[in-house]
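Write out this protein's structure.
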Amino acid sequence: MNSQNNKSLSQKLTQWCRTYVAIATLSLISGCASYHSANTLIRTQNPEGADLLQQIHPGNTHAGWLRAKIGQPSSITHNEAGSELWRYDNIQSRTKHFKLIPLLKVTLKSEQAIQYWFEIANDRVIGYWTHIADGSTPAIASVIDTPD
């Protein structure tokens, strides 16, 4: 009878341990899991984005208006035709955090850079386009032909 009591006590103790571990695990998972996402603007030269492009009329919009509207470009280069190419950058950083304390912590970071390009000739905007820095095709483009 003593061995039966020991076996019964051992089974009860094992069952109690399993139950305790299951409850502790569920409490840990439900109480300690968290998710957080944050967007941070690193640099914004064109806060109006595509809305600004709707205000530009190639061949009619003055370069001075563009500079007054969104400031100094990130870069100015010259092309073979003799016109200037102005580049403005919007860069946004995204960070996502997932924590399952104390078992797991994952942080994902990404950046998206949208470049706004404007072609300037004779002090007028003659064309514009956007470029997403990951190599995607232009989202918006408008160019007029200039007489030779």
